[in-house]
């Protein structure tokens, strides 16, 4: 089924209204303090509940009427139809001629038979893979699965890169309090040998299970690291006398200590992994959307199948809300449109994500791939140039650490940086410093930062504190720095699923407005291709070296001169 060409959002009536609205706000002067004073219902009008999450958009540079214009724009770019197409398996990833069905990864088993795409019962396929994952996870968790010397598994090591790493490691870190089987996880991704060296340095090979994650089982970094992990395993086991180094014992060791997440069973078998211990996923799910597929196998092992199902249920909550809620009342759509508002009308380039929860310390890095690989495009899905700015630079660190690092720029810098502040009312680690509840101390900072960014501090307020006049300008905070507050009940598997789906759908909304295929990633390919051409030139191939540009030749020559190993 051919998909319709994108609507040029800049030619729509809604876009013109938004431009006029923006111009009027600028002419009147954006003043959050005044807006709050003038509209006692502002917070209620701009707050929404989705699942276990509360959204407060009131400290953004919008008014309630802005939301109506956002809804009109969503209508005019046919967001509803695009959403229906995605959920039903239309090949909206048209540059690769693929469906985009990450939402199917979390559909309930009762939906089997209701989503047939390209002749496949998608939900049935998904649930069969999940059942195999869960059965394997239970074997490892119970101790039924043992290593080659009969010891139970204590550490699972995920070997993958990009979406085969960023999602699993983020979720593992986020849900650590719920690891209940005494099994830890580690994640190897970088082809830099320092990564695998450090991740394996103190491991016991007899109690380690490697999970190699590569759909094609051909990803350069992943397969290189997998081979090194195999060599490490066999060398360590032989050195300790656990195996004798014979082909038969080596093969048994690899089968007991390696499994795969891949669809290329032939390559899996060639590596030495039993194809029965390979778990597949599909070309209709991109890597950055795959953490809730077999890519999350380490998570199912560490946290258990029941908690993985809670994780999927959190995704499903937001998936349904996004698809079924009218645009004007749809917090997910509004949040995506707010990002468009800042990117295209305020010309803002970056976006901070600031979780006030240490367990979410990898969440901004995860969002970097999700958002920037998806919408870092300069052509639309029909191959025509984009008509406005696209993409945002996502970045961030947990509070309160970020406050002591880069918040200065957000508060008093010359560029506008919208920020999402994320926190939870409950913590799994309640502690007190004397009479002071530490979690409330953290939340005090969470609440204070958005207040300071919104309302600032005037020169008169600074003077009233007795500040010398020559210092007053340095202590003025202009305010009107936009933030979105997201607050949940607690960071558990369900809430984390909600958060991930939220940002997946925000990315989708933005991509729809901009006319992008948010599901391909051709921009990562050229560097990969050139690396294969250049690598031989580094140490041995002078002809390959001569074929390089002057800068590359110079750098390689310097490397040859100073390399010591």
TrEMBL record:
GO BP, one annotated term: gluconeogenesis
Protein name according to UniProt: Glucose-6-phosphate isomerase
Functional description taken from the UniProt entry: Catalyzes the reversible isomerization of glucose-6-phosphate to fructose-6-phosphate.
EC number: 5.3.1.9
UniProt feature coiled coil, ranges: none
Source species: Bifidobacterium canis
Gene: pgi
Metabolic or biological pathway: Carbohydrate degradation; glycolysis; D-glyceraldehyde 3-phosphate and glycerone phosphate from D-glucose: step 2/4; Carbohydrate biosynthesis; gluconeogenesis
PANTHER family, sorted: GLUCOSE-6-PHOSPHATE ISOMERASE
Main location: cytoplasm
Family recorded in the similarity comment: Belongs to the GPI family.
Subcellular location: Cytoplasm
Enzyme class at the top of the EC tree: isomerase
This protein's record includes keyword Cytoplasm: yes
Enzyme active site: 373 (proton donor), 404, 528
Keywords assigned: Cytoplasm, Gluconeogenesis, Glycolysis, Isomerase
InterPro entries: G6P_Isomerase, G6P_Isomerase_C, Phosphoglucose_isomerase_CS, SIS_dom_sf, SIS_PGI_1, SIS_PGI_2
Reactions catalysed, as given in the entry: alpha-D-glucose 6-phosphate = beta-D-fructose 6-phosphate
């Amino acid at each position: 089924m051919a998909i319709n060409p994108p609507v040029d959002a800049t030619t729509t009536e809604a876009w013109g209204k938004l431009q006029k609205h923006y111009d009027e706000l600028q002419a009147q002067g954006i003043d959050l303090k005044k807006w709050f004073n003038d509209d006692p219902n502002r917070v209620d009008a701009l707050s929404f509940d989705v699942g276990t999450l509360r959204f407060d958009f009131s400290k953004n540079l919008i008014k309630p009427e802005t939301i109506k214009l956002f809804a009109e724009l969503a209508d005019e770019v046919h967001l509803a139809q695009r959403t229906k197409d995605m959920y039903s398996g239309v090949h909206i990833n048209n540059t690769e001629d693929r469906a985009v069905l990450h939402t199917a990864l979390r559909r309930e088993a009762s939906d089997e038979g209701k989503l047939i795409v390209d002749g496949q019962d998608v939900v049935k396929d998904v649930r069969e893979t999940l059942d195999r994952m869960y059965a394997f996870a239970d074997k490892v968790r119970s101790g039924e699965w043992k290593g080659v010397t009969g010891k139970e598994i204590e550490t699972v090591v995920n070997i993958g890169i990009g979406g085969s790493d960023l999602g699993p490691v983020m979720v593992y870190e986020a849900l650590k309090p719920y690891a209940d089987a005494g099994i830890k996880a580690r994640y190897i991704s970088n082809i830099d040998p320092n990564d695998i060296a450090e991740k394996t340095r103190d491991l016991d090979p007899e109690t380690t299970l490697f999970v190699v994650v590569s759909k094609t089982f051909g990803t350069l970094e992943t397969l290189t690291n997998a081979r090194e992990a195999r060599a490490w395993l066999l060398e360590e086991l032989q050195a300790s006398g656990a195996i004798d180094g014979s082909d038969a014992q080596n093969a048994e060791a690899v089968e007991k200590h390696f499994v795969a997440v891949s669809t290329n069973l032939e390559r899996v078998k060639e590596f030495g992994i039993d194809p029965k211990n390979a778990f597949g996923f599909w070309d209709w799910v991109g890597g950055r959307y795959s953490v809730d597929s077999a890519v999350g196998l380490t998570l199912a092992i560490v946290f258990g199948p029941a908690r993985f199902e809670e994780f999927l249920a959190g995704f499903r909550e937001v998936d349904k809300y996004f698809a079924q809620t009218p645009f004007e009342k749809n917090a997910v759509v509004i949040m995506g449109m707010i990002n468009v508002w800042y990117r295209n009308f305020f010309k803002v380039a970056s976006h901070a994500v600031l979780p006030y929860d240490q367990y979410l310390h990898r969440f901004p890095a995860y969002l970097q791939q999700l958002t920037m690989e998806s919408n870092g495009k300069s052509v639309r899905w029909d191959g025509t140039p984009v008509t406005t700015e696209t993409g945002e630079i996502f970045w961030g660190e947990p509070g309160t650490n970020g406050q002591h690092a880069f918040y200065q720029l957000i508060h008093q810098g010359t560029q506008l940086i919208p920020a999402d502040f994320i926190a939870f009312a409950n913590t799994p680690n309640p502690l007190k410093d004397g009479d002071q509840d530490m979690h409330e101390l953290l939340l005090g900072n969470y609440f204070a930062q958005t207040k300071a960014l919104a309302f600032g501090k005037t020169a008169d307020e600074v003077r009233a504190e007795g500040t010398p006049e020559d210092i007053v300008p340095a202590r003025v905070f202009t305010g009107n720095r936009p933030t979105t507050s997201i607050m949940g009940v607690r960071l558990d598997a369900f809430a984390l699923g909600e958060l991930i789906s939220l940002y997946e759908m925000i990315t989708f909304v933005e991509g729809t407005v901009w006319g992008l295929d948010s599901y391909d990633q051709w921009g990562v390919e050229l560097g990969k291709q050139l690396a294969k051409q250049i690598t031989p030139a580094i140490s041995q191939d002078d002809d390959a070296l001569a074929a390089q540009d002057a800068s590359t030749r110079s750098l390689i020559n310097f490397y040859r001169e100073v390399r010591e190993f």
